[in-house]
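Query structure, 255 tokens:
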């Protein structure tokens, strides 16, 4: 018997909405008000998310971000600062008691990232898992992923780059030594890649989401991903949490 998941495609939303939605879903799944969820989304306006344990003031040039109309938000998950521009982001909420992924963190990353790898293969891109939480194409990073576990639920989210603007990214990220900035930019350009660099076709956001969805269907063979929509109640709950938490200084400047 297959396990049902909601498949949500929420399109382009702002940074506080995207972060609040992941938290709201954990609560709703835990209390039985929602099935587990696989969600695909984008960011509008562009944004930078900082890891839970990072210092916003240390990592981000706030004035430059404001000048470029780039939102800033703190994630629930760890890791480094991520610039969200031309990408597809996914999040998946998996109750541990469903036994769909291993309790072991590395193995759980490998399983979920395996779905992304199969999705990229649908776009004729051969990728591989690089522990702990990256996906590489020919040794270059095309996807970064992060995970947290709360109330018995694994939340993993990650980005799949359609294209990448390293120069713009470094306009808003602070670097310890400005003299080394040029070298850092050059190094990142060599280490990071995107779908557009490996595909002759110009895939749309929806094209990539469709390919990735197929990847999850192939990887999680005992799950039935059912098209779903954001309810009016969920939308209001997310908007409230975005306003009360993710847009507040006491969250974003907590470190």
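Result returned for the query:
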């Amino acid at each position: 018997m297959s396990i049902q998941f909601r498949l949500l495609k929420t399109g382009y939303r702002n940074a506080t909405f995207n972060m609040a939605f992941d938290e709201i879903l954990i609560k709703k799944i835990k209390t039985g008000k929602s099935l587990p969820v696989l969600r695909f989304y984008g960011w509008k306006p562009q944004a930078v998310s900082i890891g839970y344990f990072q210092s916003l003031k240390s990592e981000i040039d706030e004035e430059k971000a404001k000048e470029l109309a780039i939102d800033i938000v703190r994630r629930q998950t760890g890791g480094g600062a991520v610039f969200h521009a031309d990408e597809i982001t996914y999040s998946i909420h998996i109750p541990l008691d469903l036994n769909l992924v291993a309790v072991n963190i590395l193995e759980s990353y490998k399983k979920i990232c395996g779905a992304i790898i199969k999705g990229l293969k649908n776009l004729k891109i051969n990728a591989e898992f690089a522990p702990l939480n990256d996906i590489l194409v020919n040794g270059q990073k095309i996807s970064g992923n992060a995970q947290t576990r709360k109330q018995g639920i694994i939340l993993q989210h990650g980005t799949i780059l359609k294209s990448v603007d390293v120069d713009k990214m470094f306009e808003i990220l602070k670097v310890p030594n400005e003299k080394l900035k040029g070298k850092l930019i050059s190094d990142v350009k060599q280490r990071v890649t995107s779908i557009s660099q490996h595909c002759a076709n110009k895939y749309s956001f929806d094209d990539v989401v469709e390919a990735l969805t197929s990847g999850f269907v192939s990887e999680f063979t005992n799950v039935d991903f059912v098209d779903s929509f954001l309810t009016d109640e969920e939308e209001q709950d997310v908007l409230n949490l975005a306003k009360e938490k993710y847009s507040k200084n006491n969250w974003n400047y907590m470190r």
